[in-house]
Amino acid sequence: MSVNVNRYKCGYCGACVGVCPAGALELVETWIEVNDTCTSCGICAKICPVGALAVIK
Amino acid sequence: MKSRYDVIVVGAGPGGSITAKTCAEAGLDVLLIEKRQEIGDPVRCAEGLGKEGLMRHIQPDSRWIAAEVKGSKILAPDGTEIKMSEEASSGKAGYNLDRKVFDRALAQKAAMAGSEVMVKTRATGLLRKNGRISGINAMYMGETHEIRADIVIGADGVESKVGRWGGIDTCLKPSDINTCTQFLVSNIDAGEYNKFFMGEKYAPGGYLWLFPKGEHTANVGLGIIGSKCGNVRPITLLHKFIETYLPQGKIIEMVVGGVPVSGPIERTVADNLILVGDAARQSDPLTGGGIINAMDAGKIAGEVCIRAKEEGDYSVKTLKEYEDRWRATIGKELSKSLMVKNLLIKITDEQLNQLAHSLSGIDTSKMALPKVLPILFKKNPKLLWELRSLFM
Ligand SMILES: Cc1cc2nc3c(=O)[nH]c(=O)nc-3n(C[C@H](O)[C@H](O)[C@H](O)COP(=O)(O)OP(=O)(O)OC[C@H]3O[C@@H](n4cnc5c(N)ncnc54)[C@H](O)[C@@H]3O)c2cc1C
Ligand code: SF4
Ligand code: SF4
Q1: What is the position in ligand 1's atom list of the atom closest to the CA of B278?
Q2: 0.80 exceeded by the pTM?
Q3: Which residues of chain A neighbour B42 with C-beta distances below 8 Å?
Q4: Structural domains in chain A (count)
Q5: In chain B, how many domains are there?
Q6: Bridge partners, B224 (sequence order)
Q7: What distances in angstroms separate CA B52 from CA B55, B60, B93, B94, B332, one per listed residue?
Q8: ipTM value for the complex
Q9: For a substitution probing ligand 3, which of A6, A27, A41 has the most ligand atoms within 8 Å of its CB?
Q10: Residue A9's domain spans which residues?
Q11: Is A11 within 8 Å of B159 when comparing Cβ atoms?
């Protein structure tokens, strides 16, 4: 389970990191890293201001 | 870089830099780290703040002031305009900054006061000794380092991890975050007021702003409540607004970001740990303003660190002073704003128009929001009943 980050869309703002209940996301300068604790809950994808995230089930 | 300090501050935003400066001025050994290679960039802010709050921390400097505004104009969905004065909208009016320059100027103040500053250095975890926090793991240029300190300050913004690592739950629910997009728009008449466009039609559960940044440019952005995001996105709504209302506008910069609007969280200190600014969710739930709050909290955190050093005790027993002091000041305002925000989310555009109309004939141009709210309540007691505890 994971999320897909569209790196060409992402504005590296960190909003998704702040809402992830699993702490699965990390903003490293200009990109988002996803670790394996992701539960595919979809919250990050919901709140991303530009729609750069998609849940992979 | 040394292997140990009195204080490590994670994040060189306004909150972190003021904490570092305060500690360093008192002679504490301070390391301020920032994961980005350029402090302040990319910007995640509409850059507006009140003069009074700013001047508590730093003298205004033309190098980072983009524009001075006369006040605020709140626009109801039907276009009814409410003009407010200088300190209007919870002190949001006043100056519009260039945060890239401002944030760096604050970090420079921290450096000049004696702090060591490291950029491109990211905290990746907390060190522990006998169960107590004793520093951080950090990565600089791809290399990992262990850096020790008596206390770690998490000033790491909306994406804060320091609190979570230290056992403080700072996770934001979708209804606890305003998700935003902003363009720096040129080739427009920016006016002399910060404008706030209210209503579902512009920004569900938030508002749209136009903050002048000079004669022909403005930060034009909007934030919507996370719980109403998904089917609509801030970026789509903003494009629509600009096409409709500013068709001649040219977009010369883009900003995205999230502002915590949760109101005060349960805990912001642990043994050997303090959270400051957005990391402590201290931004205003109604306005989204967080620069001054982060600096005010940073000042308090710095002062409490100084005391902790004097007493040689960095446990919650000493750090609780931070908790008490910010809650008695910033926290009180956050709670009030949260009540208003929670009501605004439920109000329809029609009701917003009604509220705006109820002020017709009243000159609000010399008043700030805290003065206007009681008038609104008097005129619309039924609609605003759940705010009664603020006025009665
Ligand atoms: C679109 C938008 C508009 C806004 N408009 C306004 C406004 O008009 N007026 C206002 O007052 N406020 C506004 N705000 C809020 C304001 O930007 C924040 O409240 C303010 O920046 C908080 O300051 P801070 O120091 O707490 O955090 P930040 O300024 O976010 O600084 C945190 C820093 O920590 C760094 N960091 C994070 N993690 C790590 C790590 N692991 N290691 C090292 N460094 C790390 C980050 O890179 C960042 O530089 C707005 C916010 C947004 C998103
Ligand atoms: S919320 Fe969206 S734009 Fe912001 S960092 Fe996450 S994926 Fe990127
Ligand atoms: S889907 Fe849920 S768990 Fe996975 S990264 Fe997004 S918010 Fe975190």
Answers
A1: 26
A2: yes
A3: 11-13
A4: 1
A5: 1
A6: B179
A7: 5, 10, 10, 9, 18
A8: 0.97
A9: A41
A10: 2-56
A11: no
